[in-house]
Design goal:
Blueprint: E1 14-19, E2 22-29, E3 41-49, H1 51-61, E4 65-73, H2 76-87, E5 95-98, E6 104-110, E7 116-121, E8 143-146, H3 151-164, E9 168-172, H4 177-183, E10 189-193, H5 194-201, H6 206-211, E11 217-221, E12 227-231, E13 234-238, H7 251-264, H8 269-284, H9 296-305
Length: 307
């Protein structure tokens, strides 16, 4: 067994991941379209996606105890996603399928450089209420991760985590300002995409604006330019690992899942950023949002190769 990374107290921490699961239809194309018309795909694949769900798969691949809490329709997509998550080693006991609701589905176009274009249908007729979640189980997790797609669920699980002293990690993808204003006061680690950060906080002192909500760590992922964050008023940066990019689909989700797992294991922010960066970099070298997720040994080897 590999020695644990710096600061890690255990190898298999438990992480609850709450939020979006989507059925991805992925087409490989020569170029991403910039106008109306037709284009031919060189390849096609389908499989589960979604921010929190893929983060849970990343935790499982990396050797953690992954639990996905979420909603989908009791339709073909929902049944397939639940089955696929279970096969990936994710606990799906609190992944509920609702009759009459429609599951989220995404169209993903990927070009030869690994860049992607995503069109997402978020689903329909999914209940917003979170009163069925077993919040008493939150205290048994090492960290809780949520994305902003199920606001009531995220707020409930974050509030329970805050009460239990369990760290919270927000995958801050693009959402309405009111969503962030509700969730950020309950968030310990807010990790934004660049697009989401600038849409919410502008381009000047944006991380400082996020930190003003009381987040212990305010971060932004910048793809090939790495990740920047503020902690205790100090600015930090972790460069991205130099790799040959094949497919970026799912890389951000893997980053967030690996970050949450590291925090759950007891790592400090710098160590979490390095571990997450290594996992996301390796994912980018392989096709598939989930098929390309590395394991713990691979991630640790890449991380240590640059230390």
């Amino acid at each position: 067994m590999n020695a644990l990374p710096p600061g890690w107290a255990r190898r298999d921490p438990a992480v609850i991941c709450l939020g979006l699961t989507a059925m991805d239809q992925v087409w490989t194309v020569e170029a991403l379209p910039d106008r109306a018309g037709k284009t031919r795909a060189a390849d096609h694949a389908s499989g589960g996606g979604g921010m929190a769900a893929t983060a849970a798969v990343a935790v499982a691949h990396l050797g953690g105890q992954a639990r996905f809490w979420g909603r989908a329709g009791k339709d073909a997509a929902g049944l397939a996603m639940r089955r696929e998550l279970a096969l990936e080693g994710v606990d799906v006991e609190q992944f509920r399928l609702f009759p009459g609701a429609r599951s989220s589905v995404s169209c993903v176009l990927v070009d030869p450089a690994g860049e992607r274009l995503i069109v997402n249908f978020r689903g329909a007729d999914l209940p917003n209420e979170a009163d069925w979640l077993p919040l008493d189980q939150v205290s048994g997790a090492g960290a809780v991760l949520a994305d902003p797609r199920w606001v009531d669920g995220a707020a409930a699980v974050f509030a329970a985590a805050r009460k239990a002293g369990v760290p919270t990690v927000l995958d801050a993808d693009v959402a309405e300002a009111a969503v962030f204003e509700k969730l950020l006061p309950l968030t310990d680690h807010a990790i934004f995409s660049e697009q989401a950060l600038h849409a919410f906080a502008g381009s000047v002192n944006a991380l400082e604006h996020v930190a003003g909500f009381g987040c212990a760590v305010s971060a932004v992922t910048r793809g090939a330019d790495g990740v920047n964050w503020i902690e205790d008023g100090a600015h930090h940066h972790r460069a991205a690992f130099p790799v040959e990019v094949v497919d970026t689909n799912g890389a951000g989700d893997v980053f967030h899942g690996a970050w949450a797992m590291a925090i759950a294991a007891g790592a400090d922010t710098g160590s979490a950023a390095e571990f997450a960066s290594a996992a996301a970099a390796l994912k980018c070298t392989r096709r598939g949002g989930r098929a390309g997720i590395p394991d713990f040994t691979e991630t640790l080897e890449l991380w240590r190769s640059t230390r």
